[in-house]
Design goal:
By secondary structure, the chain is α/β, with parallel strands linked by helices. It contains 28 helices and 33 strands. It has a seven-stranded mixed beta sheet, with helices on both faces. A five-stranded mixed beta sheet has the order 11-12-13-14-15. Strands 16, 17, 19, 20 and 21 form a five-stranded antiparallel beta sheet that branches. Helix 3 links the parallel strand 3 and strand 4. Helix 6 packs across helix 7, helix 16 runs antiparallel to helix 17 and helix 22 crosses helix 23.
């Protein structure tokens, strides 16, 4: 019976079966050794072996393998570091007529044990580093061959049993991204054929130095491994997972790598870790594959590489080997949309089929099917699944057909466009959504560095779209901006999950299974019946939130920040609330009333009293003493929210809300007045000590005055933390000191005066921003004068000028304040990078010397001044140190 696969039309060329001598890998390697024994074969760390040395070491190990086992073909597992010894061990296994199975020691012990059990390996070779792990894995009768660190040639034997080109050479397990990992095996002849096709495609020469970044346990390592060793080139292993991406750029230059191969995720991490002006001049080829390549990757390639370098976007799979390749130079014109994967390589035919296995029209989408005589031999110990997936092609004897789970489309020029995996197209609320398109659209906004979308089925409303985001460091990292970017063309995700980096598998690919588990956990917390609006007021608030946040549905019990809201969205939402209801509320109200139900109750009562706004609860519950935080100049209680989150669920945290942010009251004019008002608000919540205080930046001076006053009144201040706060009389005498400084330092001080607050670098952009800021400060200083003479009210000012107004009033109060020593102790958290002020730059206690009779303990923090209330990672570092100090103080 004819099937649809049997009548598929050839698109590229007929499958060829070239007449050539069939060789085994050891025989082909022996030819290379005979021709260029003194050429460098492997360069790994401090180890460099010529082809003669590599041959001798592999011969010695092959002898030991045969002494430990019989001559039958069976898998030999290699549990070794990613270095030169592993390369010699692979050759030794092949010379002994065995099948090599490389195990990555960094993989989970469950995956390693599963591969060992499924492969039924007859021997486990382990180096000294992994000896203990090998003992724990070698259950039952599996013998272990220990490999010493000083791996030298111990035998001169070179006559090994002949290995058939049709014998099994390698056993590779799939990454598990589409289900349970399965073993796929390939023979010697197929491996050499794939190597020759790849070598011809990239014009490989003995002068090339190839990177081996992928673990040898994955099929992607095969072309680099044998491409080098079977062509006389130099192989350079580098294990990214253990050595780190930060060192990779230096290593590429140090080793003189000419051919780079990795998945796109690793390439993006490499370019981000390298400095902005760093180039890769030695590279002549960058091969990317295993994941979609985007236009941004091509742009980075064009910026960082020489004019002679080319980018190869390849499509391959464990079951098929290399399928297609597109060679892109720096002047290539790419079509709009995705970067194509090119045309089929030699001896491979590619066509498209639908879900029923029938060929599709020329311009239609379909599953990518591959026909070749050099597909992998099948699934290890799974004959039924092999027969089902690797189907014989009766039209061409000796060829088989494999239908992948990838979708594709042929472009008019004959190039194949990879559309992602078939299981990544889902229907959400009746709409067809391609998750790859959502990811591509997010990357195109230049707001994110990485994005991955997934669809999860919930109990309440079917599939929900969840997107994992690694925000770009120099852009607005808010869900509001991402939703705004997607709203015009695509279904907007219901939830954005922020990550510092996407988790990856041992192969370097993104670990989608782990992200799916996290998405399910995230949605499980939200998959509760939502409360409907109880009256017109709540209904109007629901509509406002939906518009501001770009959501289709909002419940009255949903948390504003959990829905993706940030301070900008909060200000926009409250402006709409004032417009509709005539109630002016501060942004900090959302910390205590983050749901529509609670916010509606506030509006019904006509707004909050001023006393209720003075102290904001960032975390109410907890069995530890309450920490009271003073925000910095121009900041409100929201400034402390990130730090409070990292302090832990058992730590109650309150933050003071400065007067003036409500637009109806004037900011206090002195540090003493601010401290007294904060103490009054704190005593309403906690009448007696002991008290735990901390202040951020200039808020540290207010916290210091509060501690001094409480101490004078007989109250115990058990903890006073100053978060990168400056003491002394530096602001007051800055201009006076500048007169007596050398000209170089005076210019430096003048330049700093024009830089924006927190910017410790000199650049044209910094000067431009600083000049704008100085103009605003000049204006608000005039406002202060008007306020003093004419009782000018701050709520008439635009919001950004109001912030500058409050900040300048705070700075003026700081200049008038005179420090008086405090009888307690100060815990000073000092940022590593201080502004070059010429006064306190080298002062370890930042001007607080002599101000604490109980002593000053300095806690060094990495980074600069603003990072600890803006960046999650640095806020976590500060929180960890602060939590330790609080525990010590309370004990």
């Amino acid at each position: 019976m004819n099937t649809a696969l049997e009548v598929a039309v050839d698109r590229q060329k007929s499958v060829a079966n070239p007449a050539q001598e069939e060789l085994s890998i050891p025989k082909r390697f022996a030819q290379i050794v005979a021709r260029q024994a003194n050429r460098m074969a492997v360069s790994a760390g401090s180890t460099e072996w010529t082809y003669a040395e590599l041959d001798q070491r592999s011969n010695a190990l092959a002898t030991q393998i045969l002494e430990r086992s019989d001559t039958k073909s069976e898998p030999v597992a290699l549990l070794m570091q990613h270095d030169a010894a592993l390369i010699a061990a692979i050759l030794a296994v092949l010379k002994a007529g065995k099948i090599y199975l490389s195990l990555d020691p960094i993989d989970s012990i469950e995956r390693l044990a599963a591969m060992l059990a499924d492969s039924r390996a007859g021997l486990l070779i382990a180096d000294q580093t992994n000896a203990a792990l090998a003992d724990s894995l070698a259950a039952g009768p599996l013998p272990i061959l220990p490999l010493p660190d000083d791996f030298v040639a111990l035998s001169a034997q070179t006559n090994f049993p002949a290995v058939s080109p049709k014998a099994c050479a390698s056993l590779m397990y799939t990454s598990g991204t589409t289900g349970v990992p399965k073993g796929v095996w390939q023979d010697h002849n197929g491996t050499i054929h794939d190597t020759d096709v790849y070598s011809e495609l990239i014009q490989l020469t003995p002068d090339d130095r190839l990177s081996l970044l992928t673990s040898c346990s994955f099929a992607a390592s095969s072309t680099a491994l044998f491409g080098a060793l079977l062509n006389g080139a130099t192989l350079c292993p580098f294990h990214v997972r253990s050595q780190g991406i930060e060192r990779l750029a230096f290593w590429l230059r140090e080793r003189g790598i000419t051919i780079y191969h990795s998945v796109p995720t690793v390439f993006r991490q490499l370019t981000r870790a390298a400095s902005d002006n760093e180039t890769f001049a030695n590279l002549r080829l960058i091969r990317l594959g295993g994941e979609p390549v985007f236009r941004g990757d091509v742009e980075v390639f064009r910026q960082r590489c020489s004019d002679d370098c080319r980018l190869m976007n390849a499509l391959s799979s464990t079951e098929t080997g290399l399928i297609c390749a597109a060679m892109i130079d720096k002047h290539a014109v790419l079509p709009n949309g995705r970067v194509p994967v090119g045309r089929a390589v030699r001896d491979v035919d590619v066509f498209l089929v639908n879900e029923q296995g029938r060929p599709v029209e020329n311009s239609s989408d379909g599953r990518i099917a591959v026909r070749s005589a050099y597909l992998r031999q099948g699934y290890w110990r799974r004959p039924d699944e092999t027969a089902e997936k690797f189907r014989m092609d009766p039209r061409t004897p000796g060829t088989r057909i494999f239908v992948t789970n990838d979708l594709g489309r042929f472009l008019p020029d004959g190039n194949l466009e990879h559309l992602g995996r078939a299981d990544r197209v889902v229907k959400i609320r009746g709409l067809r959504v391609d998750l790859s398109e959502v990811e591509a659209a997010l990357r195109a906004t230049n707001l994110v560095e990485e994005a991955l979308a997934t669809a999860m089925q919930t109990q309440s409303d079917g599939y929900r779209l969840v997107t994992f985001i690694v925000p770009h460091r120099k852009t607005d990292g808010s869900a509001h901006a991402w939703r705004r970017a997607l709203q015009q063309s695509l279904l907007v995700p219901s939830r954005f999950v922020i990550l510092r980096e996407l988790p990856v598998l041992a192969s370097g690919k993104i670990d989608r299974a782990q992200l799916s588990e996290r998405a399910a956990q995230t949605l499980a917390e939200e998959d509760q019946p939502r409360s409907d609006a109880s009256d017109v007021l709540e209904l109007q608030l629901v509509r406002i939130w939906e518009k501001v946040l770009g959501l289709d549905a909002v419940g009255t019990t949903d948390d504003f920040f959990a829905l993706g809201g940030d301070s900008l969205a909060a200000a926009t939402m409250l402006a709409a609330v004032e417009k509709f209801f005539g109630v002016n509320l501060p942004v900090s109200i959302l910390l205590e009333t983050p749901t529509i139900q609670k916010l509606a109750n506030v509006i019904r009562s006509g707004g909050l009293r001023q006393t209720n706004l003075r102290l904001v609860a960032l975390r109410l519950r907890g069995n530890k003493p309450t920490l009271y935080c003073v925000p910095g100049a121009g900041g409100d209680a929201l400034q402390v929210r990130l730090l409070a989150r990292h302090l832990g669920e058992d730590q109650p945290v309150f933050a003071f809300q400065p007067r003036g942010f409500d637009g109806r009251s004037l900011f206090p004019r002195s540090i003493e007045e601010i401290a007294k008002s904060y103490i009054d608000a704190m005593r309403l919540h906690q009448p007696r000590g002991p008290y735990y205080l901390c202040g951020l930046s200039s808020g540290g001076v207010v916290a210091f005055e509060m501690a001094r006053r409480l101490d004078a009144e007989g109250e115990e201040v058990r903890f006073l933390g100053l978060l990168d706060s400056h003491g002394g009389d530096y602001p007051k005498h800055r201009k006076f000191l500048a007169k007596f400084l050398p000209l170089r330092k005076r210019l430096k001080l003048l330049l700093l005066h024009f830089l924006p607050h927190g910017s410790y670098y000199v650049s044209l952009a910094g000067l431009k921003s600083g000049l704008k800021q100085q103009m605003k400060r000049w204006l608000v200083r005039r406002m202060i004068a008007l306020d003093q003479l004419m009782k000018f009210r701050v709520f008439r000012c635009p919001f950004n000028l109001m912030l500058f107004y409050i900040q300048e009033v705070n700075f003026a109060a700081r200049r008038r304040y005179k420090l008086i020593p405090f009888s307690g102790k100060i815990d000073l958290f000092r940022a590593e990078y201080q502004p070059p002020s010429d006064v306190f730059e080298e002062d370890p206690v930042l001007g607080w010397s002599g101000m604490a009779a109980g002593g000053i303990e300095v806690h060094q923090l990495p980074g600069d001044h603003d990072m600890y209330w803006l960046e999650p990672a640095t806020a976590a570092v500060l929180a960890r140190k602060l939590r330790a100090c609080l525990e010590q103080a309370s004990s």
